[in-house]
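Input record (Table S2, row 407):
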Amino acid sequence: MTTRSPARSECGADDQLSEFVYLDHAATTPLTAEAAAAVGDALRLFGNPSSRHTLGQAARDALDEARAQVAALVGGADDEVVFTGGGSEAINLALRGTFAARRGTGHLVTTAIEHAAGLECAAALRRNGVDVSIVAPEPGGHVDPARIAAAMRADTVLVSVMHANNETGAIQPVDEITELVHAAGALMHVDAVQTAGKLPLDALGADMVSVSAHKFGGPKGVGALRLAAHHRVEPLICGGGQEAGRRAGTENLPGVRGMAAAAAAALPRLRDPRHREHQWRLRTRLLRHFDVLDGVRVHATNPVMAETISVAFDHVRGDTLADVLDLNGVCVSTGSACHAGRDDPSHVLTAMGVGADQARATLRFSAGPATTEDDIDVAGRATVAAVRQLRRVSGTAPRLQEAIRAG
Ligand code: PLP
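Output record (pyridoxal-5'-phosphate complex):
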């Protein structure tokens, strides 16, 4: 196992991070020191933000301040931020809430590479009578705006497209799509769960934008939907009218404060070109390690998130490779974390036209703000060694079986 320096910027995760090279930030990120402190402080701020008394108002002030900090990350006015129980819930509120407000009528356009949260919402809407069109990506992992335009109809209510794909990192042309959607009089939702804290969101012209705290250094189980003032959704959770009637339930103040602190810590990085350059240097460095191997294919073409690399190593099972790397102290995934453990090839790669064998031979490396060049070298060297080892085994196994059969 690789032992590393415990001097990390993340807090509470230091012990674990000192043991591992963590390159699975697309699945989740370590809690930042700022977020951990904010969660701890808010746990002691026990008043109910809906109470009139001083303790309730202290909690209300903390909630309002957090809303302003999250609004600064996602763009939009403070009262356009609806706190949710994570990215999946934000997406559900955007898609199902929009159609519920229209009694389930109309047409939804989305893409074949959305996260399961988006695709399963589309499937549920279809079961309830909404017409749904699913647009396939191009082989490089991007959705062509012309295909979205071709799928739209006179009764299209909503188009939902992710900002960057969680498996391949491919950045989608959401600005161009939003423009054509608005020109046709429809609404636009962007799943920005993978880009929040990494790419600026304030210029997104979409009517709805979903984010999730645990992807940018905040706690799990808390997220937000940026919901334009002109658009009304039917709440998924009915009750006491919190979040201006858009999401009932006493607010998760520790979670929301943690998300806001992570957002405030991420904002300066967005404006710092050195941070972006660092991420591109890491990407190039990791790919350079793989130059010594044959049969390596990076799935997405540009534009991509520097942080996320989806790569197939021919003749190797991605899940086996990930297990070998784990034994060597390197954490990566085969694809989307929520699909881990399933043998069916990734729906994203399949939609891009990648064959089942190549899809199963795929690993996803995803770096974070604290990833160093040393981390990349450890991961790169371990991957090359593991791929060589596994290819030797997969090369000898058929010969062994043949020898056994031949007696
Ligand atoms: N959308 C994308 C693109 C994601 O990557 C994820 C999480 O992996 C989600 C939505 C769901 O977010 P959450 O885990 O907060 O429910």
